[in-house]
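ok so dumb question maybe but i'm new to this and my supervisor (M.) told me to 'just get the structure for Cell wall protein' and walked off. so i did the thing. is this what she meant?? sequence i used:
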Amino acid sequence: MRFSRSAVKVAILTAVFGTVSAFVAVPALAHGSMSNPISRIMQCFQEGPENPRSAACKAAIAVGDSWPIYDWDEVNIADASGRSREIIPDGKLCSAGRSKYKGLDLPRADWPATTMPGSGPYTFKYQRTAAHPGTFELYVTKPGYDPTKPLKWSDLEDTPFYKQDNPPVVGNAYQLRANLPGGRTGRHLIYSIWQRHWPDSGEAFYTCSDVIFP
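this is what came out, is it supposed to look like this??
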């Protein structure tokens, strides 16, 4: 059953990435994930859920199986309604507290990472497979962050360095134009929350993107 579901998902997602019309045709299946800097789950999906290249993706799939990776655009909580800090436990931020995605929570210093500017303006890109009115928030880990320990809310800055309702879309990606906070070097993590608006829905989506500051 899992195999057939994954096979259907792959076929649909291939069409989704290939044509704009496919995004219109399958909005009920999916929503989105950070593509730049790439999220953990999108990285593992692009590597190939059945035969990933990186040690971190191999470990994540060994813990959580390959089939959740096909749902790269669905790391969500259906009724978060702005309560993310209350309902997602420490150590489970990257999975949104869902056992389905527990492999994404593995504390490792070798997750594939995107090299970022040290500070200044940067356009984040959030790949969408369905559009929803909502608010995007981006958080960065504090100086001294240790990627070998489970990610806690207290590892993130208390306030987002970017927050915007309904950012612009170019192609099939939301464009999150932010100013990067300075004062960081080495490996860090950027955490995104996309909270949909009522009366559309209380659903929220989450991503973990590993980054390196020079």
